[in-house]
Design brief:
- 5% of the residues lie in helices and 49% in strands.
- It has 2 domains: 156 residues, Immunoglobulin-like; 90 residues, Immunoglobulin-like.
- 32% of the residues are buried.
- The chain has 2 helices and 19 strands.
- The protein has a 5-stranded mixed β-sheet with strand order 8-14-13-10-11, with no helix packed on it. Strands 1-19-2-16 form a 4-stranded mixed β-sheet, with helices on one face.
- The N and C termini lie close together (10 Å).
- The longest helix is centred in the N-terminal third of the chain and has 9 residues.
- It is mostly beta strands.
- It is globular, with a radius of gyration of 20 Å.
Length: 250
């Protein structure tokens, strides 16, 4: 069993009502000036606590002349102070119905990796598949065990696919580029983000209400918590993945 499955998630929610003195302090803490926002803010970080090991670079078994001997392993990127990169944050309103507009996203093959490694798209969005490398790649997209599409991409070809179902789309390259992986979270909400190198959570202009907040990471899985956001206020949410067994993951 991958020890990541032993990790639990804990969410600390600090409620700050209105743009008063506490609001000023919160805005300053997260890089803002005065709390003169329109709508609500949800700020915080996704963190990893306890022991963990930085994953080793991924070995290249084919096309080494172009790709090199290894490529970076992007499946577990953690900053020096524990911030977790590439965690997907989605907010689902529970007290109203939202209908997100479809958009357009791009998945590139660049330097023998998928770029971006993790991204989010609203359901119905168009996904453009491209290849910036001078070698053949494929994009094999699965949802669970089901293949959604499997596209060959020589450098001259671009293909557009529609993301018609919500869920996690896992992507591989089938021409023996076994190290290449990516993920696209397809969502039915307009409120989403992907954490940066510091693990930052940042939403602004949110309508007041009750939200189910889901945090998903490819190694740690998905966990949910409820967030109540009053009118024109700010909430700080720190989400911490920690090893329940006290052992480093693999």
């Amino acid at each position: 069993m991958n020890r990541c499955s032993q990790f639990a998630i804990f969410a600390l929610v600090i409620l700050v009502s209105g743009p008063a003195a506490q609001g000023w302090a919160l805005a300053a803490q997260f890089g803002g000036g005065s709390p003169s926002w329109q709508g609500g803010k949800l700020l915080g970080r996704v963190l990893v606590a306890g022991g963990y090991e930085r994953p080793r670079p991924l070995k290249v078994f084919k096309s080494r002349k172009f790709c090199g001997a290894t490529v970076p392993n992007e499946t577990l990127l953690i900053s020096a102070d524990g911030g977790l990169r590439n965690a997907v944050i989605t907010l689902h309103p529970l007290d109203r119905i939202v209908t997100p507009l479809p958009g357009r996203v791009v998945l590139d093959n660049r330097q023998c990796t998928f770029v971006p490694h993790v991204q989010v798209a609203t359901v119905g969005s168009e996904l453009t598949l491209k290849n910036s490398d001078p070698i053949l790649h494929t994009v094999h997209a699965r949802m669970g065990k089901e293949t959604l599409f499997n596209v060959g991409l020589p450098i001259w070809r671009q293909v557009t696919k529609r993301l018609e179902r919500t869920g996690v789309v896992r992507i591989d390259c089938d021409v023996l580029h076994t190290w290449m992986t990516a993920a696209i979270m397809v969502v039915a909400t307009p409120y989403f983000s992907v954490t940066d190198a510091s693990g930052a959570i940042w939403f602004e202009g949110l309508p007041a209400g009750v939200y189910e907040m889901e945090v998903w990471h490819e190694r740690f899985g998905a966990k949910k918590t409820l967030v109540k956001l009053p009118e024109n206020s700010a909430i700080a949410v720190d989400v911490v993945f920690g090893s329940a067994a006290g052992r480093p993951n693999e």
